[in-house]
C-alpha cells in the first residue's frame, strides 16, 4: 500500500517543469518571447504563474543591447538568481536576445551559473540546448551567424486571444550611427507573401481579429525580393481576408514610405488610421550625423500626404534628444518639427551611448544636464500637443476593441478599456450586458486627457465577436486546468508601443 508521502513524491516527480521568460527591448523581442514560450510548451514545460519572480525551473532572459547599461541590468538580475539556483537543484537559466548575440562567451565567464546562451538567429534551439546542458552538466553557448528559421515558423504561445504579431521580415539594411540592431539581427530577410497571408488566415481561424505586421524596417518589405511595392500589395491583400477587422504595422522608415503605401492605407478598410513613424530629430544636421536618409522637409511632407488621404489618422513617433553634436539651434528644429507634425504621442528618449555604435565614439557628446533640460522642454511641448489633439476627439462616436489589463483603475471606476481604430486608449462606462476582451463597443467620447480618452455616457452598442469567443474559450480552458499545472492567466491586449522612456530605446527605424 502506498503511503500519502509516497503519493506526494510521485506527483512531484511527474509534475512538468515550469518556465518564466523576462523580456526586454523592442516588439521584435516581445514576438520572439511568444515563440520561446511556444517552443518550451511544445517541449513539455508549463508557464509559471505571473509574479513567480525566479521561482520557475527554467528562467529565460530575452535581452536587449541598445541601452548603455543593458549589461549591468542583466548581470544584476543574474546575480540575484545565483543563490536561488544553488538552493534549487535542477534549475536552469538561459540568456538570449541581442545582448547574448553581442557578448557570447562573456556571459558565461561573468555568470558561470548560466546554463544556456543563444542568439537572435537560433531561438528555435532553446529546448535542445537546455536538455544538452542538463545531460552534459556544462553551459551551452551557441550563437548562429545567420537566421536558421524564420521566427513565425516556430510554435507560439500568444499573449492575446484576439491580437497577434505577424513578422514579415527580420534584420535591417540601414546603418544608423546610433543603432546596433543590424549588427545583431543581420541584413533584412523577407518572408514570402504567401507564407505571411497563410499565417494571418490561420490566426483569424483561431479567433484573432487584429494583427500587427512587424519588421525592423517594416515598409522596406520587398527589398529582399526585388519588389518596391510589395508592402502596399501586402496591405491590400490583408484587406481581402474575411474576419480580419484591424491591421496595423510597425515600424516604418521615412526613406521607404512611398505614395503607394499611403494609398493602400487609405483604400483598405481594415488598415487602421494610425501611423508610428520615427522622426528621431528635426535637425537636418543631426539627421545627417545619424545617417538617416531623409531630412525634415521630406518627413513633414509624408505626414502632410497621410493626413490629406486619411484625415483622422493618429501619427506617433520616436525622438532622440541630445545626440552627439546637437546644438541649441538643432534642438529648436526638433521643437519646430514637433509643432508642425502635431503628433498624437511621441516616445522621447535621452541619448545614451550604445556600445558598438559609431555614435558612441563621436565628438561633441552632450553633458547630461543639457540633455535633461532639452528633454523636459520637448516632453512639455508634446504633452500640450497630445492634449490638444485628444480634445479634438471629444464628441466623436468611435468603435472600440475591448482590451484587458490596459485600465489600471477600471475596477475602482466601474469602467472598461479599449482601443479606438487609431489606437488611442479609451476608458468607457461598463455596460449592463457582458462585454469580453475582443468584443467591439460603440461609444461617444466625452473627455480628453493627454494620454487617454473617456466615454462617460452609456455604451451605444455592443457587438459580440469571434475574438471575444476566443478569449472566453481560452480563459475557460485555463480555469479548468488541474491544480499544479502552472499556466497562469494570459495577459490580454493589443500590441502597443512602449511607454515614454528616459533612456534610449531601439528607435532604430
UniProtKB/TrEMBL annotation:
Xref: Pfam families: Radical_SAM, UPF0004
UniProt-listed Enzyme Commission number(s): 2.8.4.3
Residues in MTTase N-terminal domain copies: 17-135
Source superkingdom: Bacteria
Matches recorded under InterPro entries: Elp3/MiaA/NifB-like_rSAM (IPR006638), Methylthiotransferase (IPR005839), Methylthiotransferase_CS (IPR020612), Methylthiotransferase_N (IPR013848), Methylthiotransferase_N_sf (IPR038135), MiaB_methiolase (IPR006463), rSAM (IPR007197), rSAM_horseshoe (IPR023404)
Predominant subcellular localization, coarse grouping: cytoplasm
Reactions mediated catalytically: N(6)-dimethylallyladenosine(37) in tRNA + (sulfur carrier)-SH + AH2 + 2 S-adenosyl-L-methionine = 2-methylsulfanyl-N(6)-dimethylallyladenosine(37) in tRNA + (sulfur carrier)-H + 5'-deoxyadenosine + L-methionine + A + S-adenosyl-L-homocysteine + 2 H(+)
Example of a GO MF term: tRNA-2-methylthio-N(6)-dimethylallyladenosine(37) synthase activity
Annotated [4Fe-4S] cluster 2 binding sites: 172, 176, 179
Keywords of this entry: 4Fe-4S, Cytoplasm, Iron, Iron-sulfur, Metal-binding, S-adenosyl-L-methionine, Transferase, tRNA processing
Compartment annotation: Cytoplasm
SUPFAM superfamilies, A to Z: Radical SAM enzymes
Essential cofactor(s): [4Fe-4S] cluster
Assembly description: Monomer.
Name of the featured protein: tRNA-2-methylthio-N(6)-dimethylallyladenosine synthase
Organism expressing this protein natively: Streptomyces pseudovenezuelae
Gene: miaB
Amino acid at each position: 500500500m502506498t503511503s500519502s508521502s509516497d503519493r506526494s513524491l510521485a506527483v512531484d516527480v511527474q509534475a512538468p517543469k515550469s518556465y518564466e521568460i523576462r523580456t526586454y527591448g523592442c516588439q521584435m523581442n516581445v514576438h520572439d518571447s511568444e515563440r520561446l514560450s511556444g517552443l518550451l510548451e511544445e517541449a513539455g514545460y508549463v508557464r509559471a504563474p505571473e509574479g513567480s519572480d525566479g521561482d520557475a525551473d527554467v528562467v529565460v532572459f530575452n535581452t536587449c543591447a541598445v541601452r548603455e547599461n543593458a549589461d549591468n541590468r542583466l548581470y544584476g538580475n543574474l546575480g540575484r538568481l545565483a543563490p536561488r539556483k544553488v538552493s534549487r537543484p535542477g534549475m536552469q537559466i538561459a540568456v538570449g536576445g541581442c545582448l547574448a548575440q553581442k557578448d557570447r562567451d562573456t556571459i558565461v565567464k561573468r555568470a558561470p551559473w548560466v546554463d544556456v546562451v543563444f542568439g537572435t538567429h537560433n531561438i528555435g534551439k532553446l529546448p535542445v540546448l537546455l536538455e544538452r546542458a542538463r545531460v552534459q552538466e556544462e553551459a551551452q553557448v551557441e550563437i548562429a551567424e545567420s537566421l536558421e528559421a524564420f521566427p513565425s515558423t516556430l510554435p507560439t504561445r500568444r499573449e492575446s486571444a484576439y491580437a497577434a504579431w505577424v513578422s514579415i521580415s527580420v534584420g535591417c539594411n540601414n546603418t544608423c550611427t546610433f543603432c546596433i540592431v543590424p549588427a545583431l539581427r543581420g541584413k533584412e530577410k523577407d518572408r514570402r507573401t504567401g507564407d505571411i497571408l497563410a499565417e494571418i488566415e490561420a490566426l483569424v481561424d483561431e479567433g484573432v481579429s487584429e494583427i500587427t505586421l512587424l519588421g525592423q524596417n517594416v515598409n522596406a518589405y520587398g527589398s529582399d525580393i526585388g519588389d518596391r511595392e510589395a508592402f502596399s500589395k501586402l496591405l491590400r491583400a490583408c484587406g481581402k481576408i474575411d474576419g480580419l477587422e484591424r491591421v496595423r504595422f510597425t515600424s516604418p522608415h521615412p526613406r521607404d514610405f512611398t505614395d503607394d503605401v499611403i494609398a493602400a492605407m487609405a483604400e483598405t478598410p481594415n488598415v487602421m488610421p494610425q501611423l508610428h513613424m520615427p522622426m528621431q530629430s528635426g535637425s537636418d544636421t543631426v539627421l545627417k550625423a545619424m545617417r538617416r536618409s531623409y531630412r525634415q522637409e521630406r518627413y513633414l511632407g509624408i505626414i502632410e500626404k497621410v493626413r490629406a488621404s486619411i484625415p483622422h489618422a493618429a501619427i506617433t513617433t520616436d525622438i532622440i534628444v541630445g545626440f552627439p553634436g546637437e546644438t541649441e539651434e538643432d534642438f529648436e528644429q526638433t521643437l519646430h518639427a514637433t509643432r508642425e507634425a502635431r503628433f498624437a504621442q511621441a516616445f522621447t528618449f535621452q541619448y545614451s551611448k550604445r556600445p558598438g555604435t559609431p555614435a558612441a565614439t563621436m565628438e561633441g557628446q552632450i553633458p547630461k544636464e543639457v540633455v535633461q533640460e532639452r528633454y523636459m522642454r520637448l516632453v512639455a511641448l508634446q504633452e500640450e500637443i497630445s492634449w490638444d489633439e485628444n480634445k479634438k476627439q471629444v464628441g466623436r462616436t468611435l468603435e472600440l476593441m475591448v482590451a484587458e489589463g490596459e485600465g489600471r483603475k477600471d475596477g475602482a471606476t466601474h469602467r472598461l478599456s479599449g482601443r479606438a481604430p487609431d489606437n488611442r486608449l479609451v476608458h468607457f462606462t461598463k455596460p449592463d450586458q457582458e462585454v469580453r476582451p475582443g468584443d467591439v463597443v460603440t461609444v461617444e467620447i466625452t473627455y480628453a486627457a493627454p494620454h487617454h480618452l473617456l466615454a462617460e455616457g452609456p455604451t451605444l452598442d455592443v457587438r459580440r465577436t469571434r475574438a471575444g469567443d476566443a478569449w472566453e474559450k481560452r480563459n475557460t480552458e485555463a480555469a479548468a486546468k488541474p491544480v499544479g499545472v502552472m499556466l497562469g492567466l494570459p495577459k490580454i491586449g493589443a500590441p502597443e508601443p512602449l511607454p515614454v522612456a528616459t533612456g534610449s530605446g531601439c528607435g532604430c527605424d
